[in-house]
Each structure stands twice: as C-alpha cells, then as structure tokens.
Amino acid sequence: MRVAGIDPGERHLNGPQTTGRKYQNLSEPTFTMTSKLDVAAPMRDGAELMVDVWRPAEPGIYPVLVSASPYPRQIQDLGAPMGFIEAGASDFFVPRGYVHVIANLRGTGGSDGTFGFFDTQERHDMYDLVEWAAAQEWSDGNVGMLGISYFAMTQLEAAVENPPHLRAIMPVAVTSDAYEACSHHGLVSTGFLSPFMAMIGLTADKTDKLWRGTLADAARHVLNSPELHAKFGRMNGEAAVVLLKRLMRLHHDPHPWDDLWRDAVVAHPRRDEWWDERNLVSLLSRVNIPVYLGCDWQNVPLHLPGTFSTLDALTASPEVRVGLLGDFGLTWPWESLHVEALAWYDHWLKGRDTGILDGPAIRYVLPGDDEWHATATWPPEDTVLQDWVLAGDGTLTPDVADAVTEGTRRFMTLGAGLNRPEVSETDPPSSLEWTSEPLDTDLDVAGDIELHLDAAATASDVAWIVTLSDVAPDGTADPVTAGYLRATLRAIDEAASRPGAPVLPCTTAEAVPVGEVVHYRIPFVPNARRFPAGHRVRVTVVGDDQPAATPAIMGFRHASVGTSSINTIAGTSRLRLPVRASVR
C-alpha cells in the first residue's frame, strides 16, 4: 500500500492540511503497515467491541490513535465520498509511527450490546477502549483519538471520563450536545436525523462478507484511483446523507434504530432527562487534557454550533486550539487537516517541538478573502456588534436613524391537510427578504450573530427559520449561516446569555399569544465572512423549510410545526452583526 501524504509519490490527501502554518520535526513515513482485523476489545461489563488494528509492521511500541463510531470500521479505507468514512487515513498515520485502532460501538459492526446514541454506557466504553489500547503489546501507553463527526463525539465521551492514558484529543466537527445537533431550538432536523438513523440501521448488522468481499474490494480499487479521488475533494459527504432517502426504504431491524428515532423526533420535543444524558456540555469542565477543535464554516446545521459550545465549556483543559476552515475544508472520505493532526500528536504523544502551539490559539479562514486569520479569543477582540434594521420597506440597513421602522410586512405558512389545490395569487408570500444596498467597502463579519425579531402570528406556535446570505452583483445568494427557533420555546436564560448570543434552554413551552407582537431573540450559528464591496447583505425569514424551493444549508430541513399562520414582522426588528473594527 502506498503511503498517504502531500509529497510527490505519496497517495495524495484531499483538503487543506494545515491552518496556514509550517511545522517542523514532524514524523517521517519510515514504517510499513500491517493489520489485525476483527479483534475483540473487552469492556468492564464483559461486552466486547470489535476493532481493527492498523500498526507498523516493525517490532516495537508506538503511540496509539483510537477512532470509534457506529459506522462500519471495515469501510474506513473504502474511499467513498460519504459521511460515514471519517476515521482518518491509516496509511498516513501508521507509516509515521502510530497505531490506528478503529472500533465499532455497541450494537454495530459485530460489537456486543445495543447502540445507545451518545449515552452514558457509550462514555464508559470509550474509557475502557482507551485503556485497553494503552495496555496492548504494541502500545507505548500514550493514547490520542482521531476522526470527525461521530468519531469526534466519542473523543469527548472519553475525555470527560478521564482515562489515565489519554494524552490529547482532536475532535474536529464535533457535537457535545445531541439536542443542539438534532433539534434546533425545538425544530427537529429530520433532513439529517431520519436518514442518519436509517442508514446506521441498514449497515449495523452487515459483516465482513459484505464489507470485505469481492464487490467491496472492487469498489475500493475504483474509488481510490487518483483521478476519481481528486474529485471527491470538492464534495460535502456529510450533506450527502440527505441524498440517501431512497435507501431508507430498504428494510432494517426497527430496534433500536426506529426506537431512537421516535425518542428524538416525537417523544422528547423539549430538553429533558433523555436529552440530558446525551449532553456533555456540563461535563466538559472535567476535561484536563489538551484539545484541538475544528470545523468548516459550512457545517451550520450540524457540527459548527457544537464546536463553539464545546470551546466555551472547556474551562479546565490546559491547552485548547481551534482551526476553522473555509469551503470544502472537510472532505469525505475525511483526509483534511492530517498534517495538522500529525503536528498535534507528535507534540503531545511523542514530545516533539512541532510548532503547533505557536501563535494565537484560534485560526480561521475568512471566506471572501480566503486568508487565514488568528485571534486569541472567540469572538475576536476586534469585533463590535452593529445593529442592522429590518425596515418596513424591505431594506436592510445599518443606518438606524434613517431606517423606515414604521409599518409591517407579512408572510404566510400553511400546515398540511388543507385540501387546497394551489396557492392563490391573493395569498401573502411564503417568505420575506430584507436586502441591503450594495456595500461601498468590504464588510468583515466574525463572531456571534443575533436577530431581535418583533413579530405577531395567527397561530399559537410557529417556526422562525432565518438565513443570512451574501448576495453577489449578479443576484446569486450564498447562504452564510442560519438561526432557528420554535416560537413556544422562546424563553431566554438571561444569566447565561451575552449580546449576540442568547441562550435558549428549550425546557418549557409557552404558547404564542395569537395576534400579539412578541419579541424574540434568535441566535444564528456563529460564523465569519467577508462581504465584498459591491455585494449586498440579505436576511430571509420563512416558517417552513420543507418545500424544495426553500434554501436549506447542507440540505438539512426541519419537521414542520404543522400550524397555518399569517406572520407579521415589525420594522423595529434588528439584525446584530459582529463587524471587525478594521473595516467598520
């Protein structure tokens, strides 16, 4: 097998490999790779997790990188551009002197037990898995963890349990609070959650006969061809999950997959004990090892929120670093940031001075200029919140004194089962937009974003789905970020909130007073963007994003609230943008 990397002659890795820095003293690919497949790792209760071990063939002891998820471990080298292949490239790390252990969680890939979806049992298993890896004859006792998405979530699960041999983690594209990822302030992200549960259910009981059979081997050969592999660097594999709806019709064992879906989508619409068990945020203060966080700015409806909530909660970690990536920053199969990961783990697991800790802790691409920027804090210290008025005439303006705040604008959201053949020409529109004048100069935005919305509804519950877009001179609108709120869950925890970042506990529902103006604070997912001179800033508000014509970032759409309502928005509503001082 060829060694993966970025140098000539190596199997080329897709995606950005660093956060714009040059590193030194990195491990060289001097080892050959061997494997031992389908190894049983015992847990404290006697259950066994199935793992594959990829390690240097040369005798010796090495630091270990552990990857764990419910996704088939057998396909992590398949090369397909899909969101399940996220453990990292063994053929990059193993030749550079690491053991790569890829494990399946309970109830998947031949592992004992039942999948619990980010539950307490999973945390205990991650502790046991780390300590098992540390005790093997090929391990030097220094363990890190690797992988994105669910592979990142299991890293946090291990870290909050404090296994003695876990030295550092790198949870890129992480979720630390399952409710935050699955239910956006009460609006269930069924465009993601439904295919996610169905596809794990379809793959969980499949064996080596499928994943390592003749057909899969042929697919590996084709998918890893250099020409085809290079094309995958411009695909969003996680968003591709929503394209698997046809496969959802295939039969899978309803237990536990349909049970978990029903719990997440139907039985627990608000935060409660079920969700609390799947929320690590209050436990992150236990983490006492170095943590490297990262995400791409496009990951608005899934992992980007968790990146920032995790950053805020890691109060006891001795070192926290962050890398925030631009377009196609995360590639599927996941191969981006591997040189960054090597610099991180060479430092913490091998004691090498790689330069990974040089400079400010947070580095981010600013889409629009596509350059790396650095800051010691998030939000960046050089930003100031600036109010933009959603004026009654449909304009979006920072000129608060001159804005048209009188008047209102209306749109209508319709529920199901109305037996109406078509929309009437007399109906209010199904969405509203506010658009600025073309910008005279570049506008750099980085940090917390919030909408202060003054609105009335003719139903006792509605959805507010708000998108911030960058509109080019030709009229093309590029969604930047979004905010979501089910109106009945609008209560704010004032003590935990800050300007630009309201905190909504989503524990208590309160009906919307029909016909009365209500003040809402709707947080957008934090983001960064340069709106170039000549472009315009746009805010779009809808009450239902199920219609295919309605834009949805990454294609993730929400279950409809189901009510029919005429919604009236007042010209006193405000968008709060974090504008960098250098361009204000």
UniProtKB/TrEMBL annotation:
Pfam family name, one: Peptidase_S15
SMART domains to which the protein is assigned, alphabetical: PepX_C
Domain Xaa-Pro dipeptidyl-peptidase C-terminal, first and last residues per copy: 342-576
KW Hydrolase (keyword) present: yes
Keywords assigned: Hydrolase
UniProt KW Ribosomal protein keyword: no
Residue ranges, annotated region (Disordered): 1-23
Top-level taxon in the UniProt lineage: Bacteria
Record GO terms (molecular function): dipeptidyl-peptidase activity
NCBIfam families: CocE_NonD
Protein name per its UniProtKB record: CocE/NonD family hydrolase
